[in-house]
Design a protein that fits this description.
- The chain is of the alpha+beta class.
- The protein is 33% helix and 20% strand.
- It is built from 10 helices and 10 strands.
- It has an 8-stranded mixed beta sheet, with helices on both faces. The chain has a two-stranded antiparallel ribbon with strand order 8-9.
- The radius of gyration is 19 Å and the shape is globular.
Length: 302
C-alpha cells in the first residue's frame, strides 16, 4: 500500500468515526439493516460519496479544501451551479473504485446581502493565507485535526441566526465548518427488494426514520439513472460565543443513492455489473433538494 493510500484510508476512517459519534442515525440505520438481514455487518456497506460544505471567501472554500483530496489521489470532475441557494460545487473521483466519491460545495458569499457578507468577513478577515498550504498532507492526524478544528472563531448566536434568516447553508457552514455533512449508502449491492430507492425508503420509514421530502422523497435525474434520498438532519446542541448561549441546530444526515446501469451495458448479467457500468457523477436538480436536509422546511416538521 502506498503512503498516500494509507493516508487516505486513515483520513476517511477518522472522518467516519467522528461523523458516527455526532449522527446517531448512522448506527441506528446500520442496526436496522442488520435486523432486516440486508447486511451482516457495517463493513458490507458501500459508501457512494461523502460531502463537505464551505465558505467561498479568499483562502478558503473549494480552492483550499480540494487540495487535501487532490493530494490524496482524487481528480476533479464536473462543476455544478445552484443559483437559488448561491452555491458552487464539484465532485471528485477517487483513486480506486472502492473509495467514496467526494462532493465539495461552497457558498458564493459575494452574492449575499451586505449584512451577511459583513458577518462572514468579521469571522474570516484574519485568514490571510490558505491554511491547507501549511498542512502536512502526508500526515493523516494533521489532516483530521484540520478538518475538525475551525479556522475562525465560534460564532455568536445572533450572527448565526442572522445568517440562517438569509441563507441556511451559510448558518450551517459558519458553525459546523468542514464537519462531514453526510455520507451515502450505495443501494445497488443490497438484496433485491431493497436495492431501489423507493423500496429502501419504505424500509427506512417503517423503521421510524424521517425522510427529506423536498421535491419528493425520491430525487431523480432527468435521465432516470441516478435516484437519491436522505434522512432529515437531527438537531444537535450548539454552544455559541458570548457566554451561556446554546441552541439546537441542524446537524448532519445520511443519504442513499441508486445508480442504475447505463443503457449500453443493459445486456450485462447482474453479477457482471461493476461500478463503471453504472451512472456516474451527480445531478444539480437532485443535489439542490438534498441540501435541504438541514433546512428549516425539513427539520422543522413534526
Amino acid at each position: 500500500m502506498s503512503n498516500k493510500i494509507a493516508t487516505l484510508e486513515a483520513v476517511l476512517n477518522a472522518l467516519m468515526r467522528r461523523y458516527r459519534e455526532r449522527v446517531p442515525d448512522v448506527r441506528a440505520i446500520v442496526d436496522a439493516m442488520i435486523r432486516e438481514q440486508l447486511i451482516y455487518s457495517e463493513s458490507e456497506i458501500e459508501n457512494d460519496h461523502i460531502a463537505f460544505r464551505s465558505l467561498g471567501v479568499p483562502c478558503l472554500g473549494i480552492a483550499s479544501l480540494e487540495k487535501v483530496f487532490l493530494h490524496l489521489g482524487y481528480t476533479r470532475q464536473d462543476r455544478y451551479d445552484f443559483p437559488t441557494k448561491k452555491l458552487n460545487a464539484y465532485w471528485y473521483a477517487p483513486p480506486a473504485p472502492h473509495y467514496p466519491r467526494i462532493f465539495l460545495s461552497e457558498l458564493r458569499v459575494r452574492e449575499l446581502s451586505e449584512d451577511s457578507r459583513s458577518i462572514i468577513r468579521r469571522y474570516t478577515k484574519h485568514i490571510f493565507a490558505d491554511p491547507v498550504d501549511g498542512l502536512d498532507l502526508n500526515d493523516p492526524v494533521a489532516i483530521d485535526g484540520f478538518l475538525h478544528t475551525s479556522s475562525w472563531p465560534v460564532p455568536r448566536l445572533d450572527d448565526y441566526r442572522s445568517l440562517v434568516a438569509e441563507n441556511e447553508y451559510a448558518g450551517w457552514a459558519i458553525y459546523n465548518r468542514y464537519y462531514l455533512n453526510h455520507f451515502t449508502i450505495a443501494l445497488n449491492r443490497l438484496p433485491n427488494g431493497y436495492n431501489r430507492v423507493e423500496a429502501f425508503n419504505g424500509f427506512l420509514e417503517r423503521a421510524g426514520f424521517r425522510l427529506n421530502d423536498a421535491g419528493g422523497k425520491v430525487k431523480t435525474s432527468p435521465d432516470g439513472l441516478l435516484l437519491q434520498s436522505s434522512t432529515v438532519a437531527r438537531m444537535v446542541e450548539a454552544n455559541f460565543a458570548g457566554g451561556h448561549k446554546s441552541e439546537l441546530i441542524p446537524g448532519s444526515y445520511v443519504e442513499f443513492a441508486e445508480r442504475r446501469v447505463l443503457p449500453e451495458f443493459a445486456h450485462l448479467a447482474p453479477q457482471d455489473v461493476r461500478r463503471e457500468h453504472r451512472r456516474e457523477g451527480f445531478e444539480a436538480g437532485n443535489a439542490d433538494k438534498i441540501f435541504e436536509s438541514t433546512y428549516s422546511n425539513q427539520v422543522g416538521k413534526n
